[in-house]
Amino acid sequence: MFRFEGVLVMSTYCNLFRCNREEAFVMLRSMSNADRLLLSRQIGLCTMWIKCTQNVGNNRILLVRQLIRQSVDPCIRLKYRVRVGRSLNNFLNGRGSFPVARSHESAALDYRGEGVCKMIKRSRGVFEVNFNSTVSFVQNVGGMGINIHKHGLILTCAHVVAYGEDDALKVSAWAGSCVGRLKTVMFPSGELYVTRCIYSCATDNGRLDCALLKILNRGGKVFPVSTFAKKLPPRKSFCFTIGTSAYSKGDECEVTHPFHLSVGRLVGVSRKEGYSKLMHTCWTYGGYSGGGIFDRKGQICGMHCEMDDEDGVRHAVDLKALNKFIERFMRKVGNKAL
Question: In CA terms, which of 209, 274, 330, 335 is 20 to 30 Å from 87?
């Protein structure tokens, strides 16, 4: 069991993802009011839920149902969609999504991606580690991450760790508050792990949007790791990403294609205010934020974070910004956090 902020909520949080809805309801009802509210804060329920009085029986039931909706239900949906082995087989055989032509000059390559698919098929062992080190966040808003340390250190976008109420604030106001938040991730194998955000940094101009989360319940397991490229590949170089596509369905998010290959090219550097620098044409969907942009060698050269709604160009945090973020993390937090 993990003791978190003085109360035993971590063990409950871990066990939630092994339960069906009925078992989760019983487990959450049996928690003390204080523990239930603490768990609500850590997984990001809005203030309305956290401040409601737990002395009223109906409030307790409503809060329990909301906790199930935000944690257990996304896990059930993702588990249902993930077919262990099938996604990997599709990836290694180059079955994925390709960009389409756009009127905007920088996205008009209309590159179909056959070169990358053939390359992945030829060098299965090289690229399999990229697939196995990618994680999907188990939450209604989706999101991806990349494991960059054998003991479990997930690199993702800060906005993947953000809560719904953060949208009303400036980025610089909520980015630091991401530290300490709990998130659950799933590897392509179907294994689930609880993570805690240990470092986060984002800027209002959109150039930086990064967070690091540590896997808490690894039990001595050593995880596959993706490595960083030494330099950014030249413009028009092949690249690919891996993501779990999701779309909004009311208050929930429907998962369609878990751990899906998407290929494209790097198309240069953006100077547009409010967007990350690196532009690429990998055909991404909602839920791809935080996924690695990998080069021909299977090394990380960027991290997808957003799409420009005006022209359809995809933007990623560039390699230089990622390296600076990791260096800052090592200076401020260091190996003691691992």
Answer: 209
209-215 and 144-147 strand pairing: unpaired
Taking alpha carbons only, the member of 310, 227, 320, 229 closest to residue 269 is 320
d(CA 240, CA 288): 12
Mean pLDDT by 10 residues, the chain (338 residues): 44 70 84 80 69 74 81 67 60 56 35 59 74 86 90 92 60 67 85 88 76 88 93 88 70 65 83 74 84 92 85 85 92 73
Cβ atoms of 16 and 72 closer than 8 Å:
yes
**Coil, strand, or helix at residue 322?**
helix
Among 233, 242, 229, residue whose Cα is nearest residue 300:
229
CATH architecture of 86-337: Beta Barrel (2.40)
Q: How many CB atoms lie within 10 A of CB 333?
A: 15
Measure the CA–CA gap between 284 and 270, rounded to whole angstroms. 18
| Whole-prediction pTM | 0.78
DSSP 8-state secondary structure symbol assigned to residue 69: I
Are 314 and 263 within 8 A, CB to CB? no
Q: Is the CB of residue 175 less than 8 Å from the CB of residue 320? A: no
Q: Hey, what are 208's tokens?
A: 């930086």
Tokens (6 digits) for 218: 């690894």
Alpha helices (runs of H) in the chain, residue ranges in sequence order: 10-16, 21-29, 33-43, 47-50, 57-67, 73-81, 86-92, 114-122, 124-132, 158-161, 171-174, 319-332
Q: Which residues of 41-59 are buried (b: 16+ CB within 10 A; e: fewer)?
A: bbbbbeeebeebeeeeeee
Instruction: List beta partners, residue 155.
Output: 146, 212
Structure tokens at 286: 């909602």
Domain residue ranges of the chain, discontinuous segments joined by + = 10-81, 86-337
Q: Do residues 151 and 338 make contact, with C-beta atoms less than 8 angstroms apart?
A: yes
